[in-house]
## 1
Amino acid sequence: MILLFDVVERHQGEIERRHGDQLLPSHRQALQAMRRYRRQGSDLMVLQCSNCLHRVKVPHSCGHRSCPHCQHHESQRWIERQQAKLLPVEYFLITFTVPAQLRALFWSRQRTTHDLLLKTAWQTVDSFARRDPKLKGVSGAHAILHTHHRRLDYHPHVHLIVPAGVIHQQRQGQANGKEWR
């Protein structure tokens, strides 16, 4: 098995040489964290199975949110927590992508443009739900901002998981005035 440490260690000089002026401080912190942990000779912790008492030694994790080794368990737990919140309805996945022509602007003003991308995506879904003649209600959504493509190119986009329905405001006098449809 190839350790992430080995990949970072082997290619960091080339990454710095080719892309050093484009690396953000957060990128450098991620690379440094991944270099410190999960390597041959680093501190080890002992994990033991409570059923068979089998033991295995594994390197400490770096804990960085970009590290696939460290975050697999956390991402699985996050997915389970999100699934527990789902309503018993169908869902749609909607993706809003920044055009290639605007990516340089987004790169240079990430804090502002990422915020605008999330807000604009939500406002679009909300507007459709409120104005659609059959729906005319308040929708919900779960949004996830992705800043990079699988090839690790800068490619900001937002995924929204939207329920196939809205909360509809009914006339006064009915049970708490709301109905799901």
Note: The chain has two domains: 4-72, 86-180.
## 2
Amino acid sequence: MSSNFRLTRAYKNAKVIPFDDSSKFILFSDCHRGDNSFADDFSNNRNIYFHALRHYYNEGFNYCELGDGDELWENRSFEPIFLAHKNIFMLMKQYHEENRLHMLWGNHDMVYRKKGYVKEQLYSYFEPKEEKEKVLMEDLVYHEAIVLKHQKTGQELFLAHGHQADFMNYIGWRFNRFLVRVLWKPLQVWGIADPTSPAKNYKELIKVERRIKRWILQNNLLITIAGHTHRPRFPEPGDIPFFNDGSCVHPRSITGIEIENGSISLIKWQIATTETGILKVIRVLLEGPQKLIDYMDKG
């Protein structure tokens, strides 16, 4: 089973979401939300992420999470992750209740492919103060891919995690999970890099990106937005339209992709210091905004 086959299958089975120039989407991926232990890479950026997600909620955006949202290789269940970052999940609950939450699974949360697992872990939670189960994200469904389809132009944007182009993190994910749980996590405190991650392996990162670009060339230059490699990508019109939203575990910052007013932008949220010494979370525009129509195949 080739990467081309896996990407094509994901595209054909994708959830289709209609949109127009009035629609707003924020795309984040690779949050790797953990249990707030030494191995939780997300914990350093959790306040930045929460501030950004609350901003987008107040501004009426849809939230698309392109996989690896929860770190379920290092953690064996969702519960410790929920307890560590409860405020974030309660905000995601608000998105979900307004049908503005769209979730994909990646290699680190591939167990979310199973509807029964999602139901068991994410539909409800135990509230100790009230000593009862309460609704969290009831009827939440994780998808392998999403296609945003413009209602007027018919233009499509293909959203996937990107591990479809990475054999060991798609087919061999259980083996990689074993390596992370048994070998790497105990060594992480010493700064030893995860050997299974393309984000830590430049040669593998390049291979994954090349496979996705090759697939795009074979599929009418379909705009494709992924994560997985943690490397932000924003092509110019006329180049191969492969975008990457980066990750939420960069040192001291998170990156994402905004779609608004028929345009696409690459953004970063980080902590900045004012002249008076006050720390605040700010949004930085890295690339764009660029009209989506400029990426349409004129041929």
Note: Residues 3-295 form a domain with the Purple Acid Phosphatase; chain A, domain 2 fold (CATH 3.60.21.10).
## 3
Amino acid sequence: MVRRSKGPKTRARKKLRQRPSVRPTITKFLQEFSLGQSVALEPEPSSHKGMPFHKFKGSIGKVVAKRGRAYVVEIRIGNSIKQVISRPEHLKVI
């Protein structure tokens, strides 16, 4: 038997699907966010670097810090607060 893969994108085929006609513009990769700004996590399937884990898709949080090209976003899930590091192409302003 073959051992089952347990990588970061397992069971995410439908979540990370994108039509070929819909490609992001360059401005999506260059957008800037200020600290304290509300953002939604929407992974961009064509860019793999800095993509948040697929269970956080659609989550809303606040930008806490900037780390290189990426941003640290705090998300509240139940009673716990999670910090997700994500690049700007995977974030959307609310």
Note: The chain has one domain: 26-93.
